[in-house]
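Hi support team,

I submitted a single chain yesterday and got back a structure, but I'm not sure I'm reading the token output correctly. Could someone confirm the output below corresponds to the sequence I sent? I've pasted both exactly as they appear in my results page.

Thanks,
R.
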Amino acid sequence: MTPERIYDSLATGSMQKYVEGLSDIQKRRVAEFMSGRPVGSAKVGDAKNMPNQCRNNAALPNPANGAAWNGWGVDIANTRFQQAQAAGLTAAQVPRLKLKWAFGYPAGESANGQPTVAGGRVFAGGDNGFVYSLDAATGCVYWSFENGSIVRNALTIGPITGQGSARYAAYFGDGQANVFALDAQNGRLLWKTKVDPHFVARITAGVKLYNGKLFVPVSSSEEFSSGHRDYPCCTSRGSVVALDANTGKQIWKTWVVPDEPKPYKTQSNGVILYKPAGGAVWNSPTIDPVRNAGYFGTGDATTAPSPRTTDGVMAVNINTGELLWSYQAHENDVFMGGCTLPTRGDACPSPNGPDLDIGNSPILKTLPNGKRVLITGTKTGEVFGLDPDNNGALVFRVSATGVPATGARGAGSIVWGGAVDDRHVYYGVSGIGLTALRPASGERVWVFTPPAPAGGRGGLLGAAPTAIPGVVFEGASNGMLYAVSAADGKQLWEFNTAQEFETVNKVPAHGGAITSTGAVIAGGMGFVGSGYAISNGASGGNVLLAFGID
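Hi R., thanks for writing in. Yes, this is the structure output for that exact sequence:
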């Protein structure tokens, strides 16, 4: 349902009596939260109303050829490492990077969809209910598609058959748990599948395309529903769903919490409570062709007791969805985000938290000795490596903060992901800095700490880093984008994205926090969305920036 219809229902319609205590602004915010996009964004977001439309729409080349950053992690192993030829950018050239163009998301408040680069185009979505196809060199717009909800993930471009003239599809999920396949040439809808009927289910991470299957991570916003005593908590469970990439039909679905929720208590107000629940999947799955397996991180439980599949890594058979093994990084973690409110219900756990989801994609890396390791970070600032060839046996578990881990969340969290090259694995450790470790052992090699806030910059480094040969890019909570040497962490370049920009589509736009998705590099250019208004205290923004050398 659109935010306009929800707002009308709250302001003058059938839901008016239930929100008598809310102001008009609060009703708008509720409508925007439920729909996943701002009120009034539908008309202004359409590319047909933009002055920078591309003059022609030449046939899209095969996205498998040429320079590309396709999807979240650039490859099925989620390495976030761009090879030299595809990067088209060297360490020596990085200090010469300049802003080439800026694109504003109309009526947007949070530019949190990571751009995808393929076939000379940029595909990206934001929180205004639209996804866009732009020319990578100039920023002119080829098309837009109104999906109607927030897109917090990276699109994936790949071949599709049986859909008329369409040769390549743009795949993505949205804030209402819908998965879309669009004709990448013109934005025409090819199919749409709702992968979870629960009203709080959503897709916050990129889908993964492999051998004709689309692997979809499903998360949830139910943790925040616990603040309302009238809500019959908790019934939402995280999952990964496999779809036929050509048709959108479901092949299998694997729940993180395997048992279906059932009633266990009736509150004094008559509201029935349910369990088990939780285990949201906030990250893009990693594919292992050697083991015919898919790996993904899992969230905390929302009801006690917490299953052993929560707060960890799950491995499933990519043909059947069968669980192969799981590793739990943190046990007994039951968390509900709304339990600090005075209106909270009896579903609130005690203790509440500590909220230690594994929100980042596992990185699959082959070491120089031929052994393989699956690497993941945690909100406690730890990094652990698992052996994918030995049922997920623990290889190492270390603190990336420089001090022993306490098992609690605090300064030093790893949330959004890492990158790996032949020498190091890199993580933005919030409150510490960009940290390089050895992928075989987790030994810390160097830390890049941004300039102190007293200097007018600073900022927490928590976004997913991006690596090319010799360079690592990392965003900061204050909008700074840094490039540092992969060898020793010395700064090579910086750019302040937290400012207003003149945009190619003439939309007023400004940057903000770079807190979740990272920069992407392809064809000698870099692209990043600036503005993340979802985290508490983070500054929003609605701009997509493109950089190139002189």
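A quick pointer for reading it: Residues 24-35 form the longest helix (12 residues). Let us know if anything else looks off.

Best,
Support desk
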